[in-house]
Amino acid sequence: MKGSAEIICVGSELLLGDIVNTNAQFLAQELAQLGISHYYQTVVGDNPLRIQRAVAIACERSRLLLFTGGLGPTPDDLTHETLADFFDAPLAERPAVIADIQQKYERRGRTMAASNRKQALLPQGADVLPNPAGSAPGIIWEPRPGLVLMTFPGVPKEMHVMWQTTAVPYLQDEGWAADPIYSRTLKFWGIGESDLAEQVNHLFNRDNPTVAPYASQGTVKLRISARAASEAAAIALIEPVADEILKLAPGPYYGSDDDTLASVVGDRLRQTGQTLAVAESCTGGGLGHMLTAVAGSSAYFMGGIISYDNAVKIGLLGVSPSVLDTLGAVSAPVAEQMATGVRARLGTDWGVGITGVAGPGGGTAEKPVGLVYIGIAGPEGQVSSQAYRFGNLRGRDWIRHLSCCSALDLLRRSL
Amino acid sequence: MKGSAEIICVGSELLLGDIVNTNAQFLAQELAQLGISHYYQTVVGDNPLRIQRAVAIACERSRLLLFTGGLGPTPDDLTHETLADFFDAPLAERPAVIADIQQKYERRGRTMAASNRKQALLPQGADVLPNPAGSAPGIIWEPRPGLVLMTFPGVPKEMHVMWQTTAVPYLQDEGWAADPIYSRTLKFWGIGESDLAEQVNHLFNRDNPTVAPYASQGTVKLRISARAASEAAAIALIEPVADEILKLAPGPYYGSDDDTLASVVGDRLRQTGQTLAVAESCTGGGLGHMLTAVAGSSAYFMGGIISYDNAVKIGLLGVSPSVLDTLGAVSAPVAEQMATGVRARLGTDWGVGITGVAGPGGGTAEKPVGLVYIGIAGPEGQVSSQAYRFGNLRGRDWIRHLSCCSALDLLRRSL
User: Fold this and answer.
1) Cys-Cys crosslink for A409: which of A189, B230, B301, B310, Cβ 3.0 to 4.6 Å?
2) Can you tell me the distance from the alpha carbon of B151 to that of B154, in angstroms, rounded to the nearest whole number?
3) How many CB atoms lie within 10 A of CB B33?
């Protein structure tokens, strides 16, 4: 290990609170994975003097400075200019970068703006850190012996791909990374973080591998991380712990690492050669959108009907008007009829129906905001449904998100 | 204004990337609202020496230091201890704080743990910043003339209520707050950040109001911010600049502040009493999901058909099998037939059809990944379509996102 890293995020929008600093979190996680120590993060605005002051401080206490932001084409994008100034290096226009930006614009049928030329002005002596996902490249630069700077755009997607494709191999090759950390993340749906944590509490004080709980978007995750010289050695450490956890919470576990509820459902459908269609009311297409986020989903997902209006439920899905009248659109029979209706209409093995009160209006004492019914119709003609009460604490988007994920989870358990 | 603020977030979980720093964003927004300048944010781990180093730096450049984190009962919660040490003040146990914590535990039928006593040890001379939502209080402390420290727990809910109930009144009473900043954000679709920036370049060097560009999720934003004693005075500063910008880029402008493409489309449909249905292939329901993210969208959005499979395009939307055979599913006629088909099927005024190659597979030289056709069918029977080439730089999710937004934008311009 050569020394510790520091993350410096440049952008007045961070100081104004316009955006939350997910870039710092991403880089922090990645540094931990690589075993690179990191003790400070700094946020500074688009101001050359203050950027220089932050750099001066960081040089004194850290050896690897990771910058995000300030690489865009507008006049307030100042990171490269300011770094060149601080380290007394002239800026030089890189013809290869200009050509690359031009090509990217042309591929989209557009012309490069004159202001984009600025993005090709990089400090002399710095290597280009290519940006395959956008116009602004970053740099990898050692302006003083033992001090390495890397710059990334503030756009998370661009930053992520630049990090993975260029920065990580560089850091590994140049000896910045310690024994790497390998990890496996187990993912659970339908169990609370504290409930899961209580069941596996005795594993949290382990040293190698460590076990740490996270929750995001309703999925609860347990990350098992092992530090080891090889991946095989790490797996040997991780496996027994993973097995023990899965014995404790077998039902809610749905997958690992890059698995999503939609990809797991898709894998099972593909294995059995079965097909799926969806009927969505309150989610308005969100379930179909999640399912089709998986590349290759056309192998098992035929499509669906967004029956936002009751007339569509009746006309296209064959939901009974009298059931709609007597029980209302948000009811178990309607969810089931939507599921059977879309299954029949699209000729699939499986059908899913979602109907609920997403709010903020439309709730009653009997059917409050957050009440959602999900129906599942299967290949043998079997139909079932389940009621969910998501409450109204976190709003419409959250209720819709939980509805889609719960439908996938219910389907997963039915397949 | 007495001076500028600095946010110092203490917690090793931030350095490990286990959580995203929403506390910094909250405080940043609040400071902007109060008109208190704020130029730096620092994140540091639960380490006394590094906390002290961060404080030493902050004292030199800022006058109001806002700390979050490190107030809990566990041994790694060190903020108050470290600050007392740095400013050479003894820690003193506050009996009133102990009594308050005891009472809170009793109300929940629990007994205060011995470790909670630590939370009542505060630097001598500091005022208690009460925590109505949890056990750990913060402090308001002027350890040196003109230098004020405030500490908050890391738990966002506790921090927020402490900020609102005690910190904000204190800052206003003590003259820290300046004229507040009011801002209006103009939102644009279908124009690049650099292209828009070039058109309004002469406005970027203004002082009050300021104009700053941002881009997120394909939307380009210009934020006009005015510092003024009243909202009316701020509006008087903002309006002429907004008018000038809108004269320069009238087409791509779609709304301000909380407007979304979907809400703007919805507003227009509601005004004219017209209805809408969607037919989605590569977006799989994403457009419907965006439209129904708007509360009250049932007034104009009837639903749609997710025609992922060609059989659904033919069977439910009436797309011509021979056109599918000869031109393929990703073609202008299919997009148009999907739009007219769903309009007819659901009996709406407007219909939208989306078909494209979202990738990563399925692209050809003639129809590359990122090629998307959007069809619009209108109330007079008029039909049109547009081809988009989004390229393959940023992947499947991004192509699908751009497709949905472009469909909304095309519809907005058609309404």
Assistant:
1) A189
2) 9
3) 15
Same-domain status, B325 and B407 = yes
* Number of domains within chain B: 3
Condensed to tens digits (0 to 9), the pLDDT of residues B17-69 reads: 888 999 999 999 899 888 899 999 999 998 999 999 999 999 999 999 999 99
Please state the ipTM of this predicted complex: 0.80
- φ, ψ of residue B320 in degrees (nearest 5): -70, 125
Judgement on whether residues A60 and A155 belong to the same structural domain of the protein:
yes
| Whether A14 contacts chain B with CB within 8 A | yes
- Please tell me whether the peptide bond between A360 and the residue prior to it is cis, using omega within 30 degrees of 0: yes
Q: How far is CA B383 from CA A300, B128, B333, B344, in A?
A: 32, 68, 10, 12
Q: How far apart are CA B283 and CA B403, in angstroms?
A: 7
Interchain contact A332–B (C-beta under 8 A)? no
Closest Cα in chain A, distance from residue B94 (Å): 32
Average pLDDT over residues B349-361: 96
In whole angstroms, how large is the CA radius of gyration of chain B?
A: 28
Q: Is the dihedral of CA B183, B188, B192, B196 positive or negative?
A: negative
Res B44: pLDDT: 97
Per residue in B163-186, pLDDT (tens digit) is 999 999 999 899 998 777 788 999
- Among B20, B291, B298, select the one facing A309 at the smallest CB separation: B298
C-alpha to C-alpha distance for A248 and B82, rounded to whole angstroms: 41
Q: B128 in contact with A at a CB cutoff of 8 Å? A: no
Distance CA B94, CA B98 (A): 7
Residue with tokens 């129904």: B292
Asked whether residue A11 falls in the same domain as residue A153, the answer is yes
Does A312 share its domain with A401? yes
Residues A214 and A302 in one domain: no
The domain that contains B359 carries what CATH number? 3.90.950.20
Same domain, A283 and A398: yes
A301 interface with B at CB cutoff 8 Å = yes
Let me know whether A139 and A286 are in one domain.
Answer: no
Q: Which structural domain, as residue segments, surrounds residue A350?
A: 261-414
| Interface with chain A: mutation pick from B25, B43, B187, B399, highest number of A CBs within 10 Å | B43
Residue with tokens 């039909």: B383
Q: Which of A104, A312, A346 minimises the CB distance to B302?
A: A312
**pTM, to two decimals:** 0.80
For B50, which residue in chain A has the nearest alpha carbon?
A39
